[in-house]
Automatic annotation (TrEMBL):
Keywords, sorted A to Z: ATP-binding, Glycoprotein, Kinase, Membrane, Nucleotide-binding, Phosphoprotein, Receptor, Repeat, Serine/threonine-protein kinase, Signal, Transferase, Transmembrane, Transmembrane helix
Molecular function terms, GO-annotated: ATP binding; protein serine/threonine kinase activity
Main location (coarse class): membrane
Protein name, as recorded: Uncharacterized protein
Membrane topology, from the record: Single-pass membrane protein
Domain of life per record: Eukaryota
Cellular component terms (Gene Ontology): plasma membrane
InterPro entries tied to this protein: GNK2, GNK2_sf, Kinase-like_dom_sf, Prot_kinase_dom, Protein_kinase_ATP_BS, Ser-Thr/Tyr_kinase_cat_dom, Ser/Thr_kinase_AS
Pfam families: PK_Tyr_Ser-Thr, Stress-antifung
Domain Gnk2-homologous: 28-131, 137-244
UniProt: ATP binding residues: K363
Length: 669
């Protein structure tokens, strides 16, 4: 921070739209209140949503990388916010800065729907339109400090090289951080300290473009001074001839090293995937000898007792995620039937409204369901770590006595199966929306498989587990059956198979082998359902009744793939529709090695110049086949309780929910 005596020497430049904004600065604080998009009144819903969003922004203490991007509300009253801290700020410093910023910003901009505040170590921004992943360079602010540089040409050359190197480093960051800081020596042994930073939701190319634009402002606005800041909503840069930043905080890597130091056992590599579980060492030892699901009671050569108290100790989530039971009871009107969204095999789901106005969806697990305990643990331990626009966000949980509650964001537009399998409602899903759902679901799966810190296999991807938000963006839900695997692990086995018939890959359904390619198979079935508007187990066309995979493959072979397409769709996007059918068939190949990865699927969906392999006969395909009652159910098998080694499988039907899904959906009827 500059001495107060130097503030009077500072020049402040505002490029573009100056006449449309009120801008104030105090020291290194810049606040911009944008009047272009309109104002709100003190008693408006927008104001209430803004207060709720900002007051809860820093309650997400599980975020330790200094980037917060959340939204709240619906339609025109929805608010989007981004909080970003400099890469050298620890979580406590970051939260302190953002808390101060939200107070200052709402005081300085009392009724503007869009505003932004730059403080020295952080930036806070909100808007009434989506700002996530969108480059915004409309508002440039330039602050200069220090004195005129000596030997200007040499100073600018060193500065230019330093900025270019920092830009190249920052754009390689991940979705948690795109930041780089370093120094270089100029003339007269003068050291230049600098940093560059993008909001990490930007793509690599967008970050590069934003920083390139900010760096290009230096000659015009910094006037050859030895200190300057260029501030833009999506990125910022700063340099000084005095050190002003600390050591960059270290983030956990997305994936552990593939090799271990000499003498380190393979069990050590597994520790990184067992975060939030106090009994991690027991987990590793048991998983070595007993490949069964740890959360199912098993008998092994040495017994591990899972008493209720020990179970609750495993759920060591931050206090900020834990809700009081009475709070949830009041929000759901004492779990009133009028608030019930659905009933599944493991409990009911209710909608509720917190005292601050926030809508929530609450899954109340059955008290006498052992499976419910498993669902609860899986979802808390896995979903709490996940942050992606195409995944339903877990807000918290509640443990009180025998009550086990999961609190999710409320997703208003129900689930995909509510629309796609109803002949009257599916007309609301034109091809543009269906393609949006396909690509969004693919991005969510790619995050689970490759981009999150943990590799997660969903194991129950289906139309009823794809929820749709107010803009019909897909959100993958229900992680109660998800499995956590090592980042470098390609396949795992289980003695307990759970899921929904028709979506399960053959190697999983018959042998208990699951991998990311199991989810790819489910995704392929889902794509064919979205294109056809028909369920996979009952596809009818004229007098012929076949399952979807058989019907799709027969028509693909005969050159009549257009028969697969939902008649309600027009032919304006025929090539795109045909390409999706092609991708769907590639995903359901019997040999999992022939199925593409989700990364390849994203490329196939986005690049029409990429040639696709020719699919072969899909899994489970026969010219004619019958179905037993078992095949129409969600089901599981488990090894007998006589020991850890698999024996003859026991087939058990899982209690069905009202809409034929294995677990309940978070949507209203």
């Amino acid at each position: 921070m500059m001495p107060m005596a130097s503030i009077s020497c500072m020049l402040l430049f505002f490029l573009s739209s100056l006449s449309l904004q009120f801008i104030s600065s105090s020291g290194y604080i810049v606040e911009i209140c944008d009047n272009k998009v309109g104002n709100y009144t003190a008693n408006s819903r927008y104001k209430a949503n803004l207060n709720t969003l900002l007051s809860n922004l820093t309650s997400h203490t599980g975020i330790n990388y200094g980037f917060y991007n959340f939204s709240y509300g619906q339609d025109r009253d929805k608010v989007y916010t981004i909080g970003l801290c400099r890469g050298d700020q620890n979580p406590d410093e970051c939260l302190k800065c953002l808390n101060n910023s939200r107070v200052k910003l709402t005081e300085t901009c009392p009724n503007q729907k869009e505003a932004i505040l730059y403080d020295d170590p952080c930036m806070l921004r909100y808007s009434n339109s989506s700002i996530f992943g969108v480059v915004n360079t409309d508002t440039d602010s330039c602050l200069i400090s220090g004195t005129k540089a000596s030997e200007v040409d040499q100073f600018n050359k060193v500065l230019g090289n330093l900025m270019s190197n920092l830009r190249g480093t920052a754009i390689l960051g991940d979705s948690r951080r795109k930041y780089a800081a370093d120094n270089a020596t100029a003339t007269n042994f003068q050291t230049i300290y600098a940093f560059v930073q993008c909001t990490p939701d930007l793509s690599q190319q967008d970050c590069n473009n934003c920083l390139d634009g900010a760096i290009s402002q230096i000659p015009g606005c910094c006037i050859n001074n030895t200190g300057c800041r260029v501030l833009q909503p999506s990125c910022s840069i700063r340099y000084e001839v005095a050190s002003f930043y600390g050591h960059t905080t270290i983030l956990d890597p997305h994936s552990p090293p593939s090799t271990s130091p000499a003498g380190e056992s393979s069990s050590t590599k597994r520790i990184v995937i067992a975060v939030l579980v106090p009994t991690v060492v027991v987990f590793i030892i048991v998983s070595e000898y007993c490949p069964s699901n740890l959360l199912v009671k098993i008998r092994c050569p040495f017994e591990v007792k899972e008493e209720e108290d020990e179970d609750e100790e495993e759920i060591n989530i931050a206090d900020s995620l834990q809700f009081n039971f009475d709070t949830i009871r009041v929000a759901t009107e004492d779990f009133s039937d009028s608030n019930k969204l659905g009933q599944g095999g493991f409990g009911a789901v209710y909608w509720g409204r917190l005292t601050n106005g926030q809508m929530i969806a609450v899954k109340r697990l059955s008290r006498d369901s052992g499976q419910g305990d498993t669902e609860f643990k899986n979802e808390v331990l896995l979903v709490a770590k996940l942050q992606h626009r195409n995944l339903v966000r877990l807000l918290g949980f509640c443990l009180e006595g025998r009550e086990r509650l999961l609190v999710y964001e409320f997703v208003p537009n129900k689930s995909l199966d509510y629309f796609i399998f109803d002949s009257t409602k599916q007309v609301h899903l034109d091809w543009k929306l269906r393609y949006k759902i396909i690509t969004g679901t693919a991005r969510g799966l790619l995050y689970l498989h490759e981009d999150s810190r943990l590799r997660i296999i969903h194991r129950d991807l289906k139309a009823s587990n794809i929820l749709l938000d107010e803009e019909m963006n897909p959100k993958i839900a229900d992680f109660g059956m998800a499995k956590l695997v090592l980042v470098d692990q390609t396949q795992a086995n289980t003695n307990r198979i759970v899921g929904t018939y028709g979506y399960m890959a053959p190697e999983y359904a018959m042998h208990g082998q699951f991998s990311v390619k199991s989810d790819v198979f489910s995704f392929g079935v889902l794509v064919l359902e979205i294109v056809s508007g028909q369920k996979n187990n009952s596809f009818s066309h004229g007098d012929n009744i076949e399952d979807l995979l058989a019907f799709a493959w027969r028509n693909w072979k005969e050159g009549t793939a257009i028969n697969i397409v939902d008649p309600s769709l027009n032919n304006n996007a025929r090539n795109e529709i045909m390409r999706c059918i092609h991708i769907g068939l590639l995903c359901v190949q019997e040999n999992l090695a022939e199925r593409p990865t989700m990364a390849n699927i994203i490329l196939m969906l986005n690049s029409y110049s990429l040639s696709l392999p020719i699919p072969t006969e899909p899994a489970f395909y026969t010219n004619s086949r019958t179905r037993s009652l078992l095949e129409m159910q969600s089901w599981e098998y488990d090894s007998r309780e006589t020991g850890c080694a698999p024996s003859e499988p026991i087939i058990k039907l899982v209690q069905e929910s009202e809409n034929e899904t294995s677990v309940t959906q978070l949507y209203p009827r």
